[in-house]
Amino acid sequence: DFRLGTRPRRRAPAFRRSLRPSCSLLFVRFPVEQLPTITAQSPSSLIAFPFDESFPLTCEAKGNPEPEFRWTKNGQEFDPFLDPRLMKEENSGTFVIPNNGNLTEYQGTYRCYASNKLGTAISKEIEFIVPNVPKFPKETLDPVVVEEGQPFVLKCDPPTGIPPLQIYWMTINLQHIEQDERVSTGLNGDLYFSHAVDKDSRRDYCCFAAFPRIRTIVQKTAMSFPVSANAIPERRPSLLTPSGVRSEVLLVKEEDLKLECIAEGLPTPQVEWVKMGHQLPAKAKLENHGKLLIVPRVEQDDGGKYMCKAKNRLGEAVHYFTVTVEEPPEWKLEPESQLSMIGSNVHIKCSAGGIPEPVTTWRVNGVPLQESPAANRKAFRDTVVLHNAKASDSAVYQCEASNRHGTLLSNANIMIMNLRPMILTPGEESYSAVEGKAVTMHCEVFSSPPSTVTWSREDSSESVDGHRFTVHDNGSLEIEQLEKGDTGQYTCLAKNTEGLSAINAFLYVKDPTRISAPPEDQQILIGTTLETRLCLFFFFLSLCLRGSVDRYLVEEGVLHIINVSHADQGVYTCVARTPVDQDVASALLMVLDVPDAPENLLLSEHKGKSVKLKWIPGDEHNSSTTEFIIQFEESQWEPGNWKELLRVPGNHNSATLKLHGHVDYRFRVSGVNGIGTGPPSEPTERYKTSPRAPDKNPENIKIEGHLPHEMDINWEPLLPIEHNGPGLEYKVSFRRQDLEDDWTEHTVKRHSFVVKNTPTFVPYEIKIQARNHQGWGPEPKIVTGYSGEDFPSAAPDDVKVEVMNSSVVKVSWTRVHKDKLHGHLGGYRVNWWRLRSLVDSKKSHGERQMLSFPGDRSHATVPGLTPFSEYSLIVMTFNGRGNGPGSHPASFKTPEGVPEKNPVFRVTDVQRHTVSLAWAPPLEPNGILTGYLLQYQLINDTEEVGPLQTVDVSNADTTKWVLRELEPLSKYKLYLRSCTAVGCGPVASEEVTTTLQTSEYHVHGGISTQGWFIGLMCAIALLTLIVLIACFVNRNKGGKYSVKEKEDLHPDVESQGMNDDTFCEYSDNDEKPLKGSQHSLSREIKAGDSGDSLVDYGDEDAQFNEDGSFIGEYAGRKEKRASAEIKAAVQTPA
After folding, report:
1. Dmax of the chain from CA atoms?
2. pLDDT for the residue 1095
């Protein structure tokens, strides 16, 4: 918004406002004569600092014709072009004074004049100041002797210089003189002593005056200030400064009010301040130990009467200040530039306020109004009136308002002319707008007198009309709520008494831009990569992001932010913009992170056993804190190792911490939220607790008896931090529970104790109490335990076996009496072994197997037996010491079962219509074989199979068979099962394809004819032969059965409750097996240590397979017969 004058802020009547926008363009595009206007000038005060290279005096102006410049200095004409030392600029009024050391001659007050044929504009007065280097005078100062207790003032009298001035009192060694309520520096720089004391004596009091704007510090000659000793009488206060009872203070608005009262007296007086009839201003502050009252940036309300009061116990002294606040001139109504038509009356108004009231003077083209009279011009106090103005009255009028605190100057360009309308807006302009929005088409007009502006459509000579159309004072046409029908050509017509002008404009109404898929609010974990769809739009995307550009990437409407940080949190806005409109959509991105470390940890409420810890939680980073973890570290036992002490809910910011004695603690806190645990805070200061007696006794006391006549007592020792002081030890007390004995006590420092010579397995009461040098811990709890265990001395009686099926039996017995257990009952163990197969009467001692059944029980289930066999078993009990003696052996027989799978089933010959088969009987027939079930069917390579054909081989000795009447070149599936009276066993199968010829055959799927299988079987046969040879050699050397070897190693254990002839048949029998040694029945096995312990075997509801075998695993392996060899048979007619 352009103004012809220098200040474009104030509004003018409408008919004037319509002209002003065009004025700014006249200087650029149209040859219209214009009055000069100052566009740039130097500040009112220009200081020539010695460290600056040059000093420009600026004066720039514009006008048509181009203005010419001239200067005055101290009211006299000054031509910079006559001084070759000055630097000038072409087409400018600015000149530059170089800093060549000769600046004093340029000191003075300057003013710039910019003129053309229409008038003259002037600048403000510019004062060029060349400061002198401030110096203290050279002088010799005699020492001044002051009696102790008397007041004294050291004068500084600093030189004048460019403010601000800063005063420092120091010694020759640049040590500051200490100041307090007794000694202080006044506003004038003097050093005041309320009363002298002996320590004030020194010879090097120096006053330093600093002038920071000119970067200068000067020093006064050092002063000597000896203090003579004397009696120090007390006296009432009096003021050293200011003098008298009242003083006047005058200052200008916005300056700082500084009131000072420095008093002498003994004791040192205290100074108080009041404002008479009012409170001290809220912004007031006291400095210099209360002797200086400062009210910054005073307003009128800060004026009034102030009082300072200096008092001690002997009396008081007061001083009153009358503060007056004045103001420099300030515009009430600044003169404005005007464009008026010939013959009109022109009023130029100017009004300013201030304290004291400013004096207003008028100039025309820089000349005082009274020195340039005009018949049609009259001047009043605040108004100049031009009657029946003529073109020759065009001029620059200056209004200047001044008082003792400053001067205001304003130029007003007054143009008197008649001009036909000149439309400044280019014609044939095109405007694009969006349906439903508004558009403004411009028609800027410059004319005098003001023009009437009208708009019309191309299809009508009438002016546009309606509530949607508005023609503004500046000639622009605004159309609201645009419709598609508003598209077309519009004409602007400007008309006044001098003529008319017109231009055309074109309007296009378009559909609005819309974002079809706006972004959505998101939460993302810090350090990860964000991938979010910004928005879908019709035209293009404008995206402005702060921070590192490398971390931001936009691809096909998707915003990628790599390594998201806290700075990335905020609202992201997608802007779809066209030349005529835009659509905006925003989304909030919240960055999730663990909580920041808590701050300002504070320990309070220090007590012997606790302390209160407070903290200020850190930033939660958009995930609420669920809890705080308080950790501690101590300096004696594990320095540097932080341990968790306490957790408190996330809505707490304090906790009471229970502490141990004689520990030097530090604490820290970390927050936990849904993201994780945040970093810990800075640790607190050290807090050491006093030593005290233990707060607790040992826990987890264990009483064990590893030997029959001993009792081992072990416990979990107190942690070092739980000692609560030095000298920790434990008192172990014990007594028999079944006797009313006194407590036997022993004091130990370790955390175990062995009681000797105890009866076997009797109950004891034990208690353990901690103590240190400070005293005993709390009364301990009594625990009960037993002395050492011994082996059980009795075996279960009445052992009976009930055969459940061919592989499972149920064993029952009579429990061993608790007096014979000699310890804690671990349970019962059942040992069994296979004597022989009932198919073969030859005895074959099987591997001994064992199952453990924990707890007090009288029966158990033994699974996994071989059908049609004879077995023997024994039952024994066990405790923590080991096994008891075994029961008398009980023998039983298992009934027949189905046979095992045939180990060998193969095709030996294949012809066009026949297939020859051979097989081996099962290794375990599990009964008396009654024959074999042979089946076959045609399968070929289709989904359909032929009927299943069955051949019943009733002779158990038969191991060959020939299938006849088969289809040539056909594939068959063959099945073989071994059978007993109980049923048939699992299937062995083969596939074979008959041949087209009678000499060749091919077997499908049978591994028995594969080369690798034949090689494997040969290797197994060779290995078996080597083992058999080794066993026979060992036997011939007199080797014993392995069980016998173990019995020889433990004669005392094996002999308990067993007859020598119980196992005789298994020790030296000629038919004993050659396998590895079986498990000893009398090993020292504790309860729960057996890998064969299956509690479920003891339940009568145990599950079994259809053939009666037990479901699950059990210890031991079955004895296997040697595989039968089957020789290749020669085909014979059936």
Report:
1. 163
2. 37
Q: In this predicted model, what pLDDT tens digit does every residue of 246-284 receive, in sequence order?
A: 999 999 999 999 999 999 999 999 999 999 999 999 999
Q: Is the pLDDT higher at 547 or at 241?
A: 241
Residue 504: what pLDDT? 94
Q: Where are the domains of the chain?
A: 34-129, 135-232, 233-327, 334-414, 419-510, 522-592, 599-688, 699-787, 800-837+846-893, 905-994
Q: How many angstroms separate the CA atoms of 1061 and 702, rounded?
A: 42
Band of pLDDT at residue 490, cut at 50, 70 and 90? very high
* pLDDT confidence tier of residue 999, bands split at 50, 70 and 90: low
Give the Cα separation of 722 and 693 in Å (integer): 10
Q: How far apart are CA 829 and CA 1098, in angstroms?
A: 11
Taking residues 975-1003, what's their average pLDDT?
83
What pLDDT score was predicted for residue 1036?
62
Q: What fold does the segment set 419-510 form as a domain?
A: Immunoglobulin-like (2.60.40)
Q: Considering the domain 522-592, what is its CATH architecture?
A: Sandwich (2.60)
Residue type, 506: F
pLDDT digits (tens, 9 = 90+) for 423-475: 999 999 999 999 999 999 999 998 888 899 999 998 787 889 889 999 999 99
Give the full edge-to-edge strand order of the sheet including 488-496: 429-434, 499-510, 488-496, 452-457
Strands 552-555 and 477-479: unpaired
- 334-414 and 905-994 agree in CATH topology: yes
The residue length of the chain stands at 1134
- Asked if pLDDT for residue 45 goes beyond 70, the answer is yes
- What is the C-alpha to C-alpha distance for residues 659 and 990, in angstroms, rounded to an integer? 80
Please report which confidence band the pLDDT of residue 1010 belongs to, taking 50, 70 and 90 as the band edges.
low
C-alpha to C-alpha distance for 513 and 418, rounded to whole angstroms: 47
Alpha carbons 364 and 412: distance in angstroms, whole number? 10
Q: Does domain 699-787 have CATH number 3.40.50.2300?
A: no
CB atoms within 10 A of CB 396: 28
| Mean pLDDT value across the chain | 84
User: Are residues 902 and 811 in contact, defined by beta-carbon separation less than 8 angstroms?
Assistant: no
Q: Which homologous superfamily does the CATH classification assign to the domain defined by 599-688?
A: Immunoglobulins (2.60.40.10)
Tokens of 995: 């041949």
Alpha-carbon gap, residue 404 to 895, rounded angstroms: 136
Q: Cα separation of 1077 and 1073, whole Å?
A: 10
Helix (H) or strand (E) holding 1012: helix 1011-1036
Superfamily of domain 34-129 in CATH is: Immunoglobulins (2.60.40.10)
- Return d(Cα 1074, Cα 1034) in angstroms, integer: 10
Region of 201 please: left (phi>0), alpha (psi -120 to 50) or beta: beta
Residue with tokens 């029980």: 857
Cα dist from 333 to 44, 121, 406, whole Å:
22, 19, 17
In sequence order, which residues have a C-beta less than 8 Å from that of residue 635 and are 6 or more positions away?
Answer: 664, 666, 686
What is the pairing mode between strands 166-170 and 152-154?
Answer: unpaired
Whole-angstrom CA distances from 666 to 678, 683, 686, 690 are 19, 6, 5, 15
Name the DSSP letter for residue 677: B
Phi-psi region of 562 (alpha: psi -120 to 50; beta: other; left: phi over 0): beta
User: Is CATH 1.10.3720.10 the classification given to domain 800-837+846-893?
Assistant: no
Token readout for 302 is 């800060």
Contacts of 1010 (CB under 8 A, 6+ apart): none
Write the pLDDT tens digit of every residue in 916-957: 999 999 988 999 999 999 999 999 777 778 899 999 999 999
CATH topology of domain 334-414: Immunoglobulin-like (2.60.40)
Q: Are 218 and 135 in contact (CB under 8 A)?
A: yes
Element (H, E) at 1049: helix 1042-1049
Other Cβ atoms closer than 10 A to 244: 8
CATH class, 905-994 region: mainly beta
